[in-house]
Amino acid sequence: MRRVRKKEHIENYLKTSFKGDTLMGDIYLPHNALPELDFEDIDTSISFLGKKVDYPILINAMTGGSVFTQEINKDLATLAKELNIPMAVGSQTIALDDEQSKESFKIVREIIGPEGIVISNLSGLASLDDVNKAMEMVNADALQIHLNLAQELVMEEGDRNFKGILKNIELVANKIDKPLIVKEVGFGISRDVAEKLYNVGVRYIDVSGYGGTNFIEIENLRNHELDFTELYSWGIPTALSLLQLNGMKEDLSIIASGGLRTSMDIVKSLVLGAEIAGISGELLAYLVHGGYPNAKEYLEGTINKLKIIMMLLGKENIKSLRNTEYKVTGKLRELL
Ligand SMILES: Cc1cc2nc3c(=O)[nH]c(=O)nc-3n(C[C@H](O)[C@H](O)[C@H](O)COP(=O)(O)O)c2cc1C
């Protein structure tokens, strides 16, 4: 069942047509006509989870668990290795009691090697025992716990009882010896939720906001009982989620994701306080439609344009990029 579902998620993601809006377009960045910089000196590297990565881009959680998804994970891991960027695997629940599907996750660490960053992924209801097994499976540098309420509720066979998740997250946060990242899957994290997470010990939050992959639509294409079209515009736009969490606590790291597709999205995410920007759906689309070379070309082009935008802003490195002054306009300003 799970294996089929994982394949359907990919197939249905590619079939989705609703276009959400991250509201990143409402962030205005000023041009610098006199940057006093040499393009060659633009440095995009950052330190993330205690390791140096070459670009502030994370290949965010997507898949694993079958032969089909293993091929995707192989390509994604090769991209992560070649570009020296981190990668999170998809939910590992499927591999906890199915030996066969473990390989599709393990291969990610095998390709990336010990120096790179691999992040585990499980649901907010996972037990400590399962967390340990999942992290060991990929020798994880960190664990992602996903909050996917909207997805589960639209899934006919999805979870309906979400009581006790925060307590469970607290337990996991306090027991594992690697960082814990709590993430959404495309509906965003509000300041209120972020505060609750912070108060139980979470120090990394991936907002994974609205505007990109839409799990209500993905699941609606699988659900033949009820029509959820009216909920397609549900969620906190990524830019709003980032602004709500920006500067909340000094020791809280924010990861941006949800509808990030372009270099400009990445730059704006960093300016709004994110440590790194996660991409899932857009990269998957390039990979599935045009294979590994196409996905690589997309990421390389994105990196090149990232440097160009840094130059246009007069910022030589990511630290100074984060100090860019910005203006909030339009609907985003209204929502704030
Ligand atoms: C096909 C597909 C499968 C996904 N599976 C998972 C998953 O297993 N665990 C998880 O935490 N997020 C999962 N996600 C959500 C992404 O990690 C991300 O939060 C979300 O897609 C928003 O980013 P995007 O708009 O760049 O795709 C999945 C996304 C896609 C497209």
The tally of strands reads 12
User: Which structural category do the helix and sheet elements fall into?
Assistant: alpha/beta
Q: Name the average pLDDT.
A: 97
The CATH architecture can be named as Alpha-Beta Barrel
The global form is: globular
Write the layout of secondary structure elements.
Layout: H1 2-15, E1 27-28, E2 46-48, E3 51-53, E4 57-59, H2 67-83, E5 87-88, H3 93-96, H4 99-112, E6 118-123, H5 128-137, E7 142-146, H6 149-154, H7 165-175, E8 180-183, H8 191-199, E9 204-206, H9 215-220, H10 238-245, E10 253-256, H11 263-271, E11 276-279, H12 281-313, H13 318-321, E12 327-328, H14 330-335
Parallel strand pairs: 4-11, 5-6, 6-7, 7-8, 8-9, 9-10, 10-11
Antiparallel strand pairs: 1-12, 2-3
Helix pairs in contact: 2-4, 2-12, 11-12
Bound molecules: flavin mononucleotide (FMN).
Residues 9-10, 13, 60-63, 90-91, 121, 144, 146, 183, 185-186, 208, 212-213, 257-260, 279-282, 284 line the site of flavin mononucleotide.
Describe, in plain words, how this protein is organized in 3D:
There is one protein chain. With 336 residues, the protein is of the alpha/beta class. It has one domain (2-24, 52-301): Alpha-Beta Barrel (TIM Barrel), CATH 3.20.20. 45% of the residues lie in helices and 12% in strands. The protein has 14 helices and 12 strands. The chain has helices spanning 2-15, 67-83, 93-96, 99-112, 128-137, 149-154, 165-175, 191-199, 215-220, 238-245, 263-271, 281-313, 318-321, 330-335, and strands spanning 27-28, 46-48, 51-53, 57-59, 87-88, 118-123, 142-146, 180-183, 204-206, 253-256, 276-279, 327-328. The strands form 3 sheets. Strands 4-11-10-9-8-7-6-5 form an 8-stranded parallel sheet. Helix 5 links the parallel strand 6 and strand 7 (142-146). Helix 2 runs parallel beside helix 4. It is globular. The site of flavin mononucleotide has 27 residues, from helix 1, strand 7 and helix 12.
